[in-house]
Amino acid sequence: MGPRPNARLSPGSRVRVRLVKAVRPDVEYDADVLSDDGSHVVVRAPWAEADARDLGFVRFEPGDVFTEHYWRDRWYSVKEVRTDDGVRKGWYCDVARPVRVEDGLLVSGDLDLDLWVSADGRSVLRLDEDEYAAGGLAESDPAAASHALDALRELERLADGGFEGIDVRASPPLVNLRDAWESEARNWIAWARAPGHDSYWRFHRDRFIELLPPPSELTLDVGCGEGRLPRDLRARGYEVVGVDASPTLIEHAREADPDGDYRVADGADLPLADASVQLTSAFMSLHDIDDMEGAIREIARVLVPGGRLCAAVVHPINSGGKFASSEQDAPFVIRESYFEERRYADTVERAGLRMTFASRHRPLEAYFAALESAGMLVERLVEIPDTTDPPGHRWRRLPLFLHLRAVKP
User: Fold this and answer.
1) Which of 362, 373, 384 is nearest to 406 (CA)?
2) I need a labelling partner for 19 at 20 to 30 A (CA). Which of 154, 230, 241, 264 fits?
3) Is the dihedral of CA 256, 262, 264, 268 positive or negative?
4) Taking the domain 177-407, which CATH number applies?
5) Do the Cβ atoms of 69 and 98 come closer than 8 Å?
6) How far is residue 95's CA from residue 77's CA, in Å, rounded to a whole number?
């Protein structure tokens, strides 16, 4: 069966976006499909690069969310840019050939002529006119060049009118963390099950298991994902129930461990009775739960007196800032307030696998306040660097993860 040219995309599905550049390398990334009426396609994706890019008039950085509007019958695309907390930065408009969709790939042919419109609409900047002229499109494809200039003028008219008529201001709301992880479920399964691929295999699992008390009665794993930690705990003699809000991840956890007990449930609404659990593990999940405080209240509810919570989270210093570059001696910079909670997303591509990690930055005191409110007492805290890095390298100088063990009196 051959390709399906311009097939309509299904809302809620994933699509691979390819931006075809005339001179520079093509750009590819995954996006969530929001709508497709046969002409107008809307997708959403996080900033696709590992580092920030400052263009002078705007700074794009990890955590930014792009709601991208493409048309099969127009020579441009419009991309609304917001911070991870939903604050609009503006619109980046590409003059491009009408989009093509086939076999899960959305292809946009960039013509190297762009427009930036600030969030308040007062600043409208033509971009890359020198690149466009140097590309020689007027000579090589006069018809396309004519479409390109007409499209640029149309974008300027639309920007002047606040994009009235193409509905870029009425973008659907940001998905919650539960839905974000469900949309990334298959990417995560591939990522998590590649032996040696991430820190879980290299050092993190073993450091976390050191925190756990010996097996005794029932253990609950909150945010179990595709089940790798429950499988490893069961192999060490623990009786485990795994819960996760992602139906896809639970389905694959059950397939990998048919004798295990895996349930679809929100961390803030656990399907267990009061005082029924001796130990709760929350390995790299509390920062990925929308209602972290509610999850900790629920964990305290299901624990027996004397029961313990063992948790691992992205260290708040880690999520609070970024290294200025990938150089090993790069400085670590916190540009935004460490104390303000905010949504963020990191897209990582390594060894042929690509994954977007959607999480919420919270200061350290937010976790401790939630534990205090739930009546739990912290008895141990461990800060975890990347011990596989040589001394002095980036993540040997700062902690990647935070481990804590708390007891219910």
Assistant:
1) 373
2) 154
3) negative
4) 3.40.50.150
5) no
6) 7
Tokens of 391: 């001394």
Q: Rounded to whole angstroms, how far apart are CA atoms 355 and 77?
A: 25
Q: Which residues of 77-104 are buried (b: 16+ CB within 10 A; e: fewer)?
A: bbbbbbbbeeeebbbbbbbbbbbbbeee
- Between CA 329 and CA 332 the distance in angstroms is 9
Bridge partner residues of 158 (DSSP): none
> So what's the pLDDT on residue 169?
43
* Residue whose entry in the numeric block shows the structure tokens 């756990």: 212
Q: Cα dist. 181→14, 45, 61, 285 in Å?
A: 12, 13, 20, 11
Query: Going along 62-121, which residue ranges are E strands?
Result: 65-71, 76-82, 88-96, 100-102, 105-118
Kindly report the CATH class assigned to 14-160.
mainly beta
Spell out the domain ranges in the chain.
14-160, 177-407
Asked whether 205 and 232 are in contact (CB, 8 A), the reply is yes
Instruction: Flag whether the pTM goes above 0.85.
Output: no
Average pLDDT estimate for 375-381: 98
Cβ-contact 407, 379 below 8 angstroms:
yes
Cα angle vertex 210, ends 204, 212, to 5°?
A: 110
Rounded mean pLDDT, 268-286: 97
Return the biggest CA–CA distance within the chain: 79
Q: In the numeric block, which tokens belong to residue 303?
A: 């624990």
Give the model confidence (pLDDT) of 318-337 as tens digits.
999 888 887 888 899 898 88
Residue 169 tokens read as 């201001």
